[in-house]
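Sequence in, structure out. Go.
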Amino acid sequence: LQLVESGGGLVQPGGSLRLSCAASGHTLDDYAIGWFRQAPGKEREGVSCIRSRGGSTNYADSVKGRFTISRDNAKNTVYLQMNSLKPEDTAVYYCAADPTGLCVIYDYWGQGTQVAVSS
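Output:
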């Protein structure tokens, strides 16, 4: 399974971006997909995750109400819609796949996409 993130870029505070995590080599149907981010000088943190069965989701408190994770299994892609972006959202964003489907153990990682929020 290979994961490729896209959709990052520079956006002003209050703006929006939609990140994509496209998979190849295996269908994503059985995987939970998580989004993580790492800002300079900080540890990586979990942002959101969507499970494989039923598609239930969870979010970090810092992004609740602003970010939405979704999956399109037909396109083998998971999205992270980010609205009302803040400078503190600046980071490299990674997606990762959990073969248990439960958002607990991530065995596959993408290369990351940079998000910068600045005026």
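Check: The chain has a mean pLDDT of 96. DSSP finds no helices and eleven strands in the chain.
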